[in-house]
Every structure is written in structure tokens, then in C-alpha cells.
Amino acid sequence: MIDPDSECMRPGRPRTCERGAAPRTHASRILLAALAVLALAAPAPARGAVALTRGPYLTKARRTSVTVVWRTDVAGTSVVRWGAGTALDRVATGPDGTTHKVRLTGLTPGARYSYRVETGGLTFGRRRAFRALDAAHDPSFRFAVVGDFGTGSAAEVAVEDRIVLAKPRLLMTVGDNAYSSGSDAELDARVFPQYADLIDHVAINVVLGNHDVGTAGGAPERDAFSLGPRAWYSFDASSAHFVVLDSNEGCITAGCPQYDWLVSDLSHTPQPYRFVFFHHTISSCGPHGTDTDLRAAWAPVFAAHGVQVVFMGHDHGYQRSVPIDGVVYVTAGGGGAGLYAWTKPCAEAAVVLDATSVPDASHFVLVTLAADGATVSAIDRAGTVRDSFRVVP
Fold first, then answer.
1. How far apart are CA 386 and CA 380, in angstroms?
2. What pLDDT band is residue 13 in, cutting at 50, 70 and 90?
3. CA 259 to CA 301: how far, in whole Å?
């Protein structure tokens, strides 16, 4: 347990402290040991053979483009055969190496596509299919939000199973994607295997949390999810504008690059729905509580520019705030890491699901857009809707 009087539990900065992942169960320890034995017993690949070690998966989704990523044990070519519908009549390539990234461009918003990846002349797996993000005139769109999840736990797997069943068009995270330091090894052990049957056809667009920047300032995740040197960005899908912010940044006020970009970005979007995503919560009754510095800097911007919902993580549980200056703040930190008990009184909380909730409150959030409003639902690992509310443009 973290000392409640330690720096990690005080409001404000720094934001690099948090409880570690929940301990593995006895059963999971046995499973991991068995997998290790099998790996050691497996015959070595033939000399010159290429083996798939990660993916393929989709990331950096935009209306007319998406990035296909996979990794192999030896360096080779990066080739994607793809096309509209079920066709594979186009070829896109990327740089040679062991990490393969190929950007598919010229997509028609909302259209269906198929793809298959190749390295060194070897085709990996079946043909996979996805849909490009929807155009502005399409009023119906569904996306999932998950946070504080990459622990390799049974809860993480159960939540992912429910996300698959919900059939979202996009997966957004609110950070702490890979515990405990966002390393390559942790991504390969605690994220990509658990989400393999989702993100090969549903793109994952990520937020970086405090655990994600624990290895070389987040270099493994910046590379894995094609973020580049900065971890804030925006894009449109259907009738919504999505804004991703980096709450790990030290410079967050007016005059700072991220803040000035945020104001400009929200000022210029014509989209009726506006959703914001970052890690450290600015309205929470959980152990970490409200980050007062972030709130003072960013909350007035959200209110002034018509943001309907802000999604955050960091505190391991679910909290929906009452509307604050017209904005609803949702903490969605129950994706698989151990849940926290909410201990602080907080008049801003409309709904709380935490470690004391029965049944287990591990969850994701599903957002469904429609012409007459958007429905935001917290769904637990058993598939039960534990909270639901609507917002309108």
C-alpha cells in the first residue's frame, strides 16, 4: 500500500507515482510457468525462417488512413496486401526491419477493407478486415474506452472479451497501457496477447499514462503506437472530434506548446461532439484524487469550447461526475489493474464503482453516437451495464 501522506498521494504534481499492478494469482503463475516451459521446449526455427512475434494490429486510425504494425524475430521486408471489400489487389510497403509499419492511405471513410501482412515473402495468418473511421455525415458510430489495464490479469482478459462483444469501431485508451513501466517486454506479455483478437481489426489509439513513460520516456509505446515525439493529437470520426492530451507533460499552461495547440484545435473544429482523453484525473474521489494543476489549466478550456465528456484514468475505478460547467468528467481506470477503494468525500461524483463494489467493477466504457444524442455506458467484466448517461451536442 502507498502511504496516504506520501508525495504520491498529494494533489497536484508530480504525476509519476502510482500503485503497481495487482499481484498475479496462483493460477496465473502456473500458466506463465507452463508457457515458459513450452517456449524453452519448442524447436528453434529453421535458419533463415521468419517468425511473427507481435501483431499484426491497427493503430493511428484516421478517416482516410491507418497504420498496420507487426514484428518479426529477424529483419525483413514490410509488405501489406490490401484492398476494398474482400480484395487484396493493392500493395503498400514500409521500411525493412524487425518492426514493420505500413501506412494505408486513401481510404474511403466508413468503407470496409481487407489486408494481409508479409515479411521476406512469407504471409502471416489469414486475411483480416476492418472499416475506416466514419465520415462526418454518418451519425452512428461506436467506440470503446479502457484504462489502467495492461497487467496480464484475468480481469484484463475478461474486460477485453466484453469489448470484443460490443463490436466498437475504435478503441481509445486513457493510459497505463502496459505495467509497470511501458517496456517492450511488458507490451509483449501484458497487452498484445490479451488484445490480439480485437486490435487486428479495430484500431487502437492510445493515451500515455505515468506507467507508460517509465521506460526511456515512453519510447517503446511511442514506437508501438506510432505517436512520435509528442503524445497529443486529434482526429475526427463520424460526428465527433477526438482530442488526446499528454498529462505527463510538465508544461501545461498558456504559452506551453500543448496548451496553445489545444485551444487552437478546439477553436477550429466544426464537429458537434467533442471528447477529450488523457490519463491523470481532474475530478476524482479516489486515492489519487483531483490533479488541481491540470484542472486549473485545462478545465476552463474544455468548458469554453463545448467539450461534452472528458475521459481519464489513473484512479483504478469508475467515476462519473455531475456536469461541471457543462462538462462531464469520467474516470475509467478499471480495465484490469487492481481496483482502488474510493475514500474521499466528493460532491462532484454522480456515480462511483470501486474496489468495494459488488460485483467486481472492472470495466470499459462504450460510447454510441446517434443523430439525437450520444449514450455513454460503463460495462463491467460480466457484460452488465453499471452506469449509463446521455449527452447532446
1. 7
2. very low
3. 9
3-state secondary structure of 379: strand
DSSP E strands: which ranges in 153-312?
Answer: 170-173, 204-205, 233-237, 240-244, 273-277, 309-312
Strand partners, 90: 82
Q: Give the side-chain half-sphere CA count within 13 A for 16.
A: 10
Residue 39 reports pLDDT greater than 80: no
Give the CB-side neighbour count of residue 10, counting CA atoms within 13 A. Answer: 7
The answer to whether 324 and 346 have CB atoms below 8 angstroms apart is: no
Write down all domains in the chain, each with its CATH number in brackets: 52-131 (2.60.40.10), 141-391 (3.60.21.10)
Between CA 24 and CA 106, with CA 222 as vertex, the angle to 5 degrees is 120
pLDDT digits (tens, 9 = 90+) for 239-254: 999 999 999 999 999 9
Q: Tell me the whole-structure pTM to 2 decimals.
A: 0.89
